[in-house]
Specification:
By secondary structure, the chain is of the alpha+beta class. The chain contains four helices and four strands. Strand 3, helix 4 and strand 4 form a beta-alpha-beta unit. It starts with a helix and ends in a 6-residue tail after the last strand.
């Protein structure tokens, strides 16, 4: 991913917004939690496949949303391409489109 970001930085008319990672630590997967709370599983049956290490990216959505709104209102671009796995940007995409920007957005990229 770092190589990808480095290559993007070399491109004209390209902006990269990076947030920071917030470590939430080891967590029991949601389905496993439900089974434990409903007494469908015993705590002693937990395996390493039942937990995951949780990291969340923070501090980026508002930056990107503000960039999109600013670009759209100031008519600074004809097209915006957003590569993201986050559907939180749908309202910003709609705003840009209402302002006449060709907005290319795939909210399902990078999701499982």
């Amino acid at each position: 991913m770092k190589c990808f970001h480095d290559e993007l930085r070399k491109k004209r008319l390209t902006a990269i917004r990076l947030g920071y990672l917030h470590e939430e630590g080891w967590q029991i997967k949601r389905q496993v939690q439900d089974e434990l709370f409903k007494n469908k599983r015993d705590w002693s049956s937990l395996t390493e496949d039942d937990v995951r290490y949780s990291l969340k990216q923070k501090g980026i959505d508002i930056k990107i949303g503000t960039d999109i709104a600013s670009i759209a209102y100031k008519k600074l671009a004809q097209k915006i391409v957003l590569i993201s796995g986050d559907s939180d940007f749908v309202p910003a995409a709609k705003l840009a489109r209402r302002e006449g920007i060709d907005f290319v957005f795939r909210p399902d990229v990078g999701t499982d």
